[in-house]
Amino acid sequence: MSKTNPLFVDSTKIGSDSIGCRIELSGLDIEGDQSVYVKFCDSNGFEESTQLQQHPEEPIFFGKIWLNHQQHVTFQFYVMNHEGIFRTSVPSQAKATYIIESKWKEAEGQKELIDAHSLSPDIEEEKPVSALDELGDLSSLIDKWGL
Amino acid sequence: MDPQSSATHAIFGDREFDNTVFDVLINRLPAEQAVVHSEDFDIDVIPSEIMLSGVDIQLAAHFGRERILKKALDGIKRKYDVVIIDCSPSLGLLTVNALLASKNIIIPICPEYFSLKGIELILETLKNLRIGLGHKVEVQGIVITRYRNRKVTNDVIKDVKDTFGLNVFNNFIPDNISVEEAHHRHIPVHKYAPSSKGAKAYGALSKEIII
User: Fold this and answer.
1) I want to staple B182 with a disulfide (CB 3.0 to 4.6 A). Which of B65, B75, B101, B189 is the partner?
2) Is B58 exposed, middle or buried, given 0-12, 13-18 or 19+ CB atoms closer than 10 A?
3) Do the Cβ atoms of B61 and A138 come within 8 Å?
4) Residues 6+ apart with CB under 8 A from B34
């Protein structure tokens, strides 16, 4: 995952605030009887799946899911037909923002989905950047400088 | 939103103002109290000032720091057909405030190699804005300024269209001394030298943008 530029972090949200995250998946073609889903989970036990819709004008699938702002999440796309899951993508990681864009990358071998319990809890969290986080630092500086 | 205040100086010269966009951003002055009318240009302006250069630091800890301008303009935008926000060519909290207050952007460039890099950075910024702050801004088009009919110039314009797939406005602004002189005299070029190439080009460009 790349570093976060604090300019593009919503300062009105703190780490535990929920945001509606739009998921966009490109690079996948499906047949008429198939549906695309995405599953999100994190190392705290959060798991949620949602079905994606095909965009009427662009070659993408999209959907919306509620996530905790700036939290690290692992997600995986999968394709279902009437018999069940028959295609899965390689799991990806991201930080929860307003939009997560991803390109389909087919997983080889077993078609198993990620689950929260198998995720490593030791991901080094980058400190979320919000007004509330920074206030503490600035207050101490103002005290120090006597402003 | 440009601390260098070039647009403000071009319109008002060295006139000083009690209230500027700095007061709107930092002191939460209602935007209408900072509006100044220019008789020569027949437009309302919220002037800029050099104090803006420190705004990034002053706003760093503000809750909702990236939407201060948007909220300020929400109170007055219904009075106007078009609101133009002039930005500096750098990325910071001022530019993010301007972009979050906007639906469309127009990118003026001198057609040279480094402009292509600049456009790439602007597009990256718009993508980050959409992902991180949930706000979508469309590029309405690229304005070619200081145009000279040279091979390298035309190559750059072709690259802008082909590489980025962006709209380039058909009316290029030529490198024309009348435009500079009009700035210096603080009057619009269409009043200063109405038959100059610069004035005609800006007139045609305005029509192209509005239509």
Assistant:
1) B189
2) middle
3) yes
4) B17, B19, B20, B21, B23, B24, B46, B47
Beta strand residue intervals within chain B, DSSP E: 36-38, 43-45, 104-109, 138-144
How high is the ipTM of this complex? 0.82
State residue B113's pLDDT score: 83
* Residue in chain B lying closest to A100 (CA): B131
Chain B residue closest to A134 (CA)? B61
Residues of B in contact with A18 (CB under 8 A): none
Would you say B138 and B106 are in contact if contact means Cβ atoms under 8 Å apart? no
Span A7-41, pLDDT tens digits: 999 999 987 799 999 999 999 999 989 999 999 99
For B172-181, write each residue's pLDDT tens digit.
Answer: 999 999 999 9
The whole-model pTM stands at: 0.84
- Tokens 């001022």 sit on residue: B94
Closest chain B residue to A9, measured at CA = B132
Q: Could you tell me how many residues make up chain B? A: 211
Task: Give yes or no for A132 touching B (CB within 8 A).
Answer: yes
- Contact yes or no for A94/A2 (Cβ under 8 A): no
Q: What's the sign of the alpha-carbon dihedral B88, B89, B91, B95?
A: positive
Say which DSSP state B34 is in.
G
Closest approach of B204 to chain A, Cα-based (Å): 33
